[in-house]
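Subject: Predicted fold for histidine kinase, 403 residues

User T.R. writes:
Posting the sequence so we have a shared reference for the thread.
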Amino acid sequence: MKNSIFKSFRFEIVLYSLLSLVYTLLTEALLYFGFYLVYRVVNGNKMYGQIKYGNLANRAAGNGASLNYTPNNIQNSFTGDGRIPTKGFIVFMVIIAFLVGVLLFTIYFLFLTKKFGTYLERIAGGITEIAAGNFNTRIEIDNDDEFALIAAKLNQMAGDIKQLIENERNSENTKNQLITSVAHDLRTPLTSIIGYLSLVSDKDKLTPETKERYIEIAYSKSKRLEKLIEDLFSYTKFSFGEVTMELAKLNMVKLINQLVDEFYPSFQESGLEYEFSTTIGSVYVKGDGNLLARAFANLISNAIKYGKDGKSVRIKLETIDGKVITTVTNYGRLIPEQELQNIFERFYRLEGSRSSETGGTGLGLAIAKNIINMHGGTIGVRSDFNGTVFEVVLDEQKEGMEG
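User M.O. replies:
I've generated the structure tokens; pasting them so everyone works from the same file.
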């Protein structure tokens, strides 16, 4: 914030000083002019009385003798009795004029600069409130000078401190939620594993077929526990920037085709029809093939888990204005508007989704978002009667381009 010299505190001080000086000179001029008029009126009456007295004395003498009240004589008489200012009187009046001028200048200057004092009191009050911990305090800014700059910086500081405190509080809450979620998700499959293995260990009460089924369930739960631990490590690495990318030019059409083929057994097992549609033979992006494959695999896996009621999953790839846009659509249960904004948060799962069938780690979409963000892309979601659509946008890299 760089102020104009004409709006600065220094310029205002100079301006108010000059105005105070002008007002002082005008006031003193008016005062002395008033004194002069009074002096003329008073002394004029005295002269008129003396001249009238002389005329009466002449008539009384009856001889027309003059008492010599000529102008010069009158002036001499004034000098003789002190009515004409002497040098000492002039010096005295100059001193009085100077003192009165200083007093008037001080009064005018304090009056004109009163707003500065008010502004400083306001700033001091704001500092006191902020120091007391009231970070909602904001100092009113009604100018564009240095005081306004100070007030603006104090307001910014209060806002920053408040945001830091809120972030710290949110971080603490998030940490507690993370611990709770991890403990829950680790304990659930582990409890099942221990329970089924305990049953298997009782050799006398179970048939071989039952034991085999329990072992399969324990193995399935173990794989789920392994997946959770793997996702936890992955998410931690993404969050702390510990993942390095090996960038290359990737054919997105080929990448999505391969993923769809890999998920064929999952589509069949879930009774879902699937379709990958594109009008493009090939389109390229710059990225890490393994990471992007994982991100899109998480989106497809999520569509399979939550789209079973809709009986189909649609994947579409197109290019618009240099952007590669990939959508993964399922037609299962709609996602409420209030939940859409949280769907990419770690460990977030839709209400009632913590079942053995759909309850994943709660990290898949968070990991996908991190990967897409690392590639400079965006990921979003919308859910309505046309389906739940996850949309990924990446920058297209033309063939032959380097970088």
